[in-house]
TrEMBL record:
PANTHER family: EIF-1A (PTHR21668). Keywords: Initiation factor, Protein biosynthesis. Residues 1-63 form the S1-like domain. The gene is eif1a. It comes from Haloarcula vallismortis ATCC 29715. Belongs to the eIF-1A family. This is Translation initiation factor 1A. Seems to be required for maximal rate of protein biosynthesis. Enhances ribosome dissociation into subunits and stabilizes the binding of the initiator Met-tRNA(I) to 40 S ribosomal subunits. GO terms for molecular function: RNA binding; translation initiation factor activity.
Length: 81
């Protein structure tokens, strides 16, 4: 699901607000940690954990132009960033 990063907590953790209205603790996996910089107000693709719904893995970060296109197509209307 789509989410917006609201706070960078340090290390490999961020606070995200998902399109379902929930605020979750997002974990940046090792494969993205040093290759993809994730900042506040970035649009990301998050996958909530099956066993703890308050946590999620960050799967992808959308760059500015891609995020603008998602907004124009109406995919992330509920997220404001």
């Amino acid at each position: 699901m789509f989410a917006v990063v609201t706070e960078h907590l340090g290390g490999n953790h961020v606070r995200i607000r998902c399109e379902d209205g929930e605020t979750r603790l997002g974990r940046i996996p090792g494969r993205m940690k040093f290759r993809t910089w994730i900042n506040e107000d970035d649009i990301v693709l998050a996958e909530p954990w099956d066993w703890q719904d308050e946590k999620a893995n960050i799967e992808w970060r959308y760059k500015g132009q891609d995020a603008d296109q998602l907004r124009s197509e109406g995919h992330i209307d509920s997220l404001t960033a």
